[in-house]
Amino acid sequence: MSMSAAASQSGAVEGSPLVALRGVTKVYGQGAAAMLALRGVDMVVDEGEFVAVMGPSGSGKSTVMNILACLDTPTQGQYFFKGVEVGAMSRNQRALLRRQYLGFVFQGFNLLGRTSALENVELPLIYRGIKIEERHLLARKALAVVGLNGWEDHTPSELSGGQQQRVAIARAIVSQPAVLLADEPTGNLDSGRSLEIMELLTAFNQEMGITIIMVTHEAEMARFARRVIHFRDGLIAADETATRPGQEESREREGR
Ligand SMILES: Nc1ncnc2c1ncn2[C@@H]1O[C@H](COP(=O)(O)OP(=O)(O)OP(=O)(O)O)[C@@H](O)[C@H]1O
Ligand SMILES: [Mg+2]
Fold first, then answer.
1. Residue-wise pLDDT tens digits, 57-116
2. What pLDDT, on the 0 to 100 scale, is given for residue 10?
3. Which residues pair with 28 in a beta bridge?
4. Burial of 242 (0-12, 13-18, 19+ CB in 10 A)
5. Model-level pTM?
6. Which of 179, 184, 170, 175 is nearest to 216 (CA)?
7. Which distant-in-sequence residues (6+ apart) come within 8 Å of 198 by Cβ?
8. What DSSP line would sit under the chain, residue for residue?
9. In degrees rounded to 5, what are phi and psi of residue 251?
10. How many CA atoms lie within 13 A of 215 on its CB side?
11. What is the distance in A from the centroid of ligand 1 to the CA of 14?
12. Which residue's CA lies nearest to atom 11 of ligand 1?
């Protein structure tokens, strides 16, 4: 099924932003121990954007990512995907949204330890019911894209941190998601490796049209994004769109 066919089947509203959070709060725990992780977040991301999410530890970045990934639900407020309220979807529709549209790279890699790189990358395809031959083919391709051909049969324990990170990224993009959600994808890497990962993400964004929302602590990595959203104490404190010479030019051209 094509993406737009799937979208119209799921009732996507024409002209809606790809993702939108409206007044989203998140409370963890109860009573005196209650912790307000998000305090009313409004955030809109359009198709094709590359957004960096920054902010101090504990400011709510991962909480927002988990909500966008449908791994957690807002306490109050709404999450819309292509104009459809995610909270009003059935379990099946939400599972479909996760499988068809979303790819994740988690804080930490979340790879299966005793399973080969190839099988780790194939996992999302298994959930999508894709047959074994095609799974192998797509997973090999995704591993090649991240520069890991020849490493298919290695388990994560036989790979370096940077290589494990690449496996996690291959797994996130193998199903060609509309949105890639990455929580500190370069968190454990030295700066050379980190820049390579950022170049990969930039290529996914520019060449494959994948919308990227990426948490990072490092300004050097955030520079690859065109927009930076800063969180503080569970709220968006700033939302900046970079103006680079090339982009201003293209915007002007479009305006004419
Ligand atoms: N499952 C949970 N149960 C209870 N409190 C939680 C849970 N997850 C997060 N929190 C709390 O919510 C707040 C926001 O956490 P979150 O993980 O979103 O921060 P973060 O911005 O991702 O931080 P970091 O940069 O350290 O990853 C923190 O105070 C945290 O302790
Ligand atoms: Mg976090």
1. 999 999 999 999 999 999 999 999 999 999 999 999 999 999 889 999 987 778 998 999
2. 57
3. 35
4. middle
5. 0.88
6. 184
7. 186, 221, 224
8. --HHHHHHHTTPPTT--SEEEEEEEEEES-GGG-EEEEEEEEEEE-TT-EEEEE--TTSSHHHHHHHHTTSS--SEEEEEETTEEGGGS-HHHHHHHHHHHEEEE-SS----TTS-HHHHHHHHHHHTT--HHHHHHHHHHHHHHTT-TT-TT--GGGS-HHHHHHHHHHHHHTT--SEEEEESTTTTS-HHHHHHHHHHHHHHHHHS--EEEEE-S-HHHHTTSSEEEEEETTEEEEEEE---HHHHHHHHHHH-
9. -65, -40
10. 24
11. 34
12. 37
Nearest-ligand number for the alpha carbon of 71: 1
Index of the ligand 1 atom closest to the CA of residue 231: 21
CATH of the domain at 156: 3.40.50.300
User: Domain range holding 75?
Assistant: 3-255
Q: Is 108 in the pocket of ligand 1 (CB under 6 A)?
A: no
Q: Which of 4, 45, 37, 51 is nearest to 21 (CA)?
A: 45
Across all residues in the chain, what is the average pLDDT? 89
Number of structural domains (the chain) is 1
